[in-house]
Hints:
This protein has 8 helices and 19 strands. By secondary structure, it is an alpha+beta fold. Strands 7, 8, 9, 10, 13, 14, 15, 16 and 17 form a 9-stranded mixed β-sheet that branches. A 4-stranded antiparallel β-sheet has the order 3-2-5-6. It has helices at 5-11, 17-25, 84-88, 115-122, 142-150, 183-190, 221-231, 270-279; strands spanning 3-4, 29-31, 34-35, 41-42, 48-50, 53-54, 63-68, 96-98, 106-112, 130-136, 153-154, 157-158, 163-168, 171-176, 195-203, 206-207, 216-218, 248-252, 255-259. Among the domains are: 3-54, Structural Genomics Hypothetical 15.5 Kd Protein In mrcA-pckA Intergenic Region, Chain A, CATH 3.10.290.10; 63-233, Pseudouridine synthase.
Amino acid sequence: MKIRxxxxxxxxxxxxxxxxxxxxxxxxxxxxxxxAELGDQVDDDDEVLVDGNPVQTRVQRVYIAYNKPVGITxxxxxxxPDNIIKSVAYHGGRVFPVGRLDKDSEGLILLTNNGDIxxxxxxxxxxxxxxxxxTVDKPVTDEFVKKMSDGVPxxxxxxxxxxxxxxxxxxxxxxxxxxxxxxxxxxxxVFGYSVLRLVRVRIMHIHLDTLPVGSWRFLTDxxxxxxxxxxxxxxxxxxxxxxxxxxxxxxAPGKFTPTTPEEPKSGRGTRGKAASxxxxxxxxxxxxxxxxxxxxxxxxxxxxxxxxxSKPAGKSGFSSKPGSKNRSxxxxxxxxxxx
Length: 339
């Protein structure tokens, strides 16, 4: 089956899809003797050259479990001296991390050369467990455990409910199915706790166990099989019948404001349209007199923001008061919100 050429090159372990696109734009990729183009579809029957070298696609899939030390960055950026690729030092081809683990955290992180599996593992809707052990600076109380388990408001959202279990006076385990930025540290901070040590000990069915810090191992055949089975149907997930699609939200300072997925089409001002109707033809260039004071190129209607409209303010233009009704100068008609 033919696939996009950037994916074909990436799966061969040569570079990322983005870098493959750059090479194509620079004329460094050829397909069957001609310069490749973005979006070309190829398979093993095509001759693909990158920098003059043939692409070998029969690459064995690699899955690595790595016990990341504190101080290592979960990035493939070679300009970062602490990047994870340099630390792992795997010489069997290109690999990249599945997700990330904060620089000041340690523990289990997976690396692979299978780009298709990464998003499937990370997708929150797939409900894949990630377990951590956490040491904090104050005694872990029953109240703290309950509040952490119920979800905590951080960075404008409330975290999903999770399982929290007290280990001893100053440590606990937490199992998450999402991965917000510095999530556990932010959750603890809400209740006045500071994290002293954070270790990820499990991703799905894959455990850190006794793997030494800074060391890595290949996943066993059984672990790989179970991983592939767990994400097999991820790409085909659909909204269940009868279930409404979620609203689209845009982040505003301190809150989320619901918006519509698509912008409404712009229209003429109400007065301009009425004037056109009276003349029986299209409005002339000066027919939008109902929008005095408005900027050129903008409709005289309201902004379309949820819960707010505008109304005329005499001859000077529209009032800026939110929530006021938009009264048309044409009798019996009402203006509608518009962007």
